[in-house]
Design brief:
By secondary structure, the chain is mainly alpha-helical. The protein folds into 2 domains: about 35 residues, no CATH class; about 130 residues, no CATH class. Helices cover about 55% and strands about 10% of the residues. The longest helix has about 50 residues. The radius of gyration is 33 Å and the shape is rod-shaped.
Length: about 200
């Protein structure tokens, strides 16, 4: 192995002007590693840029791993979060529609009424938790008659008004044109919205 020759510490290139003149075998940008190189890294603009890049390179695997863990956690949390939103949303619907007859068949209100969707929750994700799309419904219509959609369609405009019914129809049409995925922030926002609505009803 060829032994490096001693040369004076003299800054060249990015480190121009930072050399001390001492003879040294180990140099970067002409600077002696044991005398001037660390000072150039810490005190010059080009040195700080190089140092920052080196730090980023070293920490990138760790940052990538942390980001991966966070994304995986959020993905695993989503199903539970969706269940949580569903619970509070349906609680609000049952409170809001307490005393009102079944949206489909008109059966007088009963405490076992469920929160029934007009546009099915499993098919229309964007309006899965939309309050215009969910109403108090008897078990017979919601479960045994699979939503009793024909009568639901007749009575829903009477319940929410023609304008709101048309707006809901438009939202349902748009649902099929978008690639929609739930995210944590949106779900938490919806959950908080219904929690506040429940508090208002319970005042």
């Amino acid at each position: 192995m060829i032994e490096p020759k001693e040369k004076p510490c003299k800054g060249t290139g990015l480190a121009k002007g930072y050399g001390c003149g001492k003879m040294t075998k180990h140099r970067v940008y002409g600077l002696g590693k044991m005398c001037c190189y660390s000072g150039w890294l810490l005190n010059s603009e080009n040195g700080r840029i190089k140092l920052d890049r080196a730090r980023l390179k070293v920490t990138k695997p760790r940052r990538d791993f942390e980001n991966f863990k966070q994304e995986r956690k959020e993905r695993s949390d989503l199903p539970n979060l969706i269940k949580s939103v569903k619970k509070v949303c349906h609680e609000y619907i049952r409170l809001r529609d307490k005393g009102k007859p079944c949206i489909s068949c008109g059966t007088p209100w009963h405490q076992e009424f469920q929160a029934g969707h007009f546009y099915k929750a499993e098919l229309f994700s964007t309006i899965k938790f939309h309050e215009l799309n969910i109403h108090g419904q008897c078990v017979q219509c919601n479960i045994r008659k699979d939503g009793n959609e024909s009568q639901y369609r007749v009575n829903l405009p009477l319940r929410i008004g023609e304008d709101n019914f048309k707006a809901l129809d438009d939202l349902a049409s748009l649902d099929k044109k978008v690639d929609f995925k739930w995210n944590r922030d949106t779900l938490i926002e919806i959950r908080n919205y219904y929690r506040n609505k429940i508090k208002e009803l319970k005042k």
